């Protein structure tokens, strides 16, 4: 049997190869990340060089709960389960989506291959973004399309139940079909419909303006993101203006820092109102990269939420050593040993929204006039878990278990 961790590693590698073909600048990003990792590997306290270099986090977007449920079933075959609930509508730069992240949940599985996919679903029931008429049209459009072949999802459920594929032949076929489901489509896009959705949000257009889904970014992990930023810029790659997340300090790295190269104009085929097709371009995909630090406890996260609004006084909120962090109960360490930090495996909504906005959204249209409590829709962690038919794991529970 080919175990789910092996399938996951093959899936991540296949997606990476495909994405590198679709977005050549991604290959440069991976090359530079690998160079930096070799030079900054140190004592391996943030994971082995092999693990860090192979690590990827993908991002995809779907339109409704049925599509999200298919994603959950598909990723379960790769040993990836939903962890955390993210509401990017509430970020300083709002994006009309709610999200979860599919990833391994056991420490040994993360070590074998830590592939994650941040998966966002369009919040069409939120009247602040979609009036009733537009919502109805978007919902109909999404219901008519089929992102994943039924036999692919059926095979995924069977493989998940069995704990892996029967043999190399089945594994290869399954990984190939799963990867193809996230390839960028070359089918013509209805220009008028896409532009109408883009008036709400470029992310909304990317989700519901097309009949397929695709990898939006495939993020390598780097051990020194500031050095990565400098080297990419030196190569003439246009980066976004800032590194999102905590500031660089002399103390322990915490949570997650992210940046990216700017979304590139990619050639796409369009169809006008008269039915005539023509060539154009869209700028929706970008090259994100991340650096990961120690996972914070709930107390540490409270400190972080306060400190991030006052970064100049970071040291007033966080001590300068891992030993002090551990003693204060601010972060997770294996067995309480400050030399063994538990790596943060999840995401920061504000950083994700900041990356989105820096790349694709100038302004998101929000209807300020809508104020009643039902206008924002039913979305919550419990709602999403019920909608996709899978338990959504609490990241703090997973970090506590990893530290025990």
Automatic annotation (TrEMBL):
Its cofactor is Fe(2+). One of its GO terms (molecular function) is dioxygenase activity. Keywords: Dioxygenase, Iron, Oxidoreductase. It is an enzyme of class 1 (oxidoreductase). Its EC number is 1.13.11.93. Pfam families: HGLS. Belongs to the 2-oxoadipate dioxygenase/decarboxylase family. This is 2-oxoadipate dioxygenase/decarboxylase. It comes from Mycolicibacterium fluoranthenivorans.
């Amino acid at each position: 049997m080919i175990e789910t961790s092996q399938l996951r590693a093959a899936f991540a590698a296949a997606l990476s190869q495909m994405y590198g073909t679709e977005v050549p600048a991604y290959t440069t990003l991976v090359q530079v990340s690998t160079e930096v990792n070799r030079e900054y590997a140190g004592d391996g306290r943030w994971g082995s060089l092999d693990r860090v270099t192979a690590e990827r986090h993908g991002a995809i977007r779907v339109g409704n709960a049925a599509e999200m449920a298919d994603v959950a079933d598909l990723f379960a075959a790769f040993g990836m389960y939903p962890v955390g609930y993210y509401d990017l509508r509430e970020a300083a730069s709002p994006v009309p989506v709610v999200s979860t992240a599919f990833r391994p949940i056991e420490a040994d599985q993360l070590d074998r291959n830590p592939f994650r996919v941040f998966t966002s679903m369009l919040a069409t029931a939120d009247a602040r973004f979609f009036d009733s008429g537009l919502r109805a049209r978007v919902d109909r459009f999404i219901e008519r399309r089929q992102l994943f072949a039924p036999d692919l999802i059926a095979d995924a459920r069977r493989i998940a139940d069995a704990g892996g594929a029967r043999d190399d032949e089945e594994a290869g076929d399954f990984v190939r079909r799963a990867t193809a489901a996230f390839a960028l489509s070359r089918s013509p896009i209805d220009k008028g419909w896409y532009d109408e959705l883009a008036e709400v949000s470029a992310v909304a257009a990317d989700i519901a303006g097309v009949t397929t889904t695709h990898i939006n970014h495939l993020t390598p992990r780097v051990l020194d993101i500031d050095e990565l930023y400098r080297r990419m810029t030196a190569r003439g790659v246009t980066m976004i203006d800032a590194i999102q997340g905590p500031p660089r300090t002399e103390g322990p790295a915490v949570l997650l820092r992210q940046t990216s190269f700017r979304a590139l104009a990619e050639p796409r085929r369009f169809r006008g109102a008269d039915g005539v097709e023509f060539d154009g371009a869209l700028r929706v995909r970008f090259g994100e990269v991340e650096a990961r630090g120690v996972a914070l406890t709930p107390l540490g996260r409270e400190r972080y939420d306060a400190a991030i609004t006052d970064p100049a006084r970071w040291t007033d909120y966080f001590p300068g050593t891992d030993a002090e962090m551990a003693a204060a109960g601010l972060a997770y360490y294996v067995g309480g040993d400050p030399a063994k930090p538990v790596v943060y495996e999840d995401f920061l909504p504000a950083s994700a929204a900041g990356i989105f906005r820096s790349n694709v959204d100038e302004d998101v249209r929000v209807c300020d006039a809508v104020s009643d409590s039902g206008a924002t829709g039913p979305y919550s962690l419990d709602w999403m878990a019920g909608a996709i038919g899978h338990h959504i794991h609490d990241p703090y529970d997973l970090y506590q278990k990893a530290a025990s």
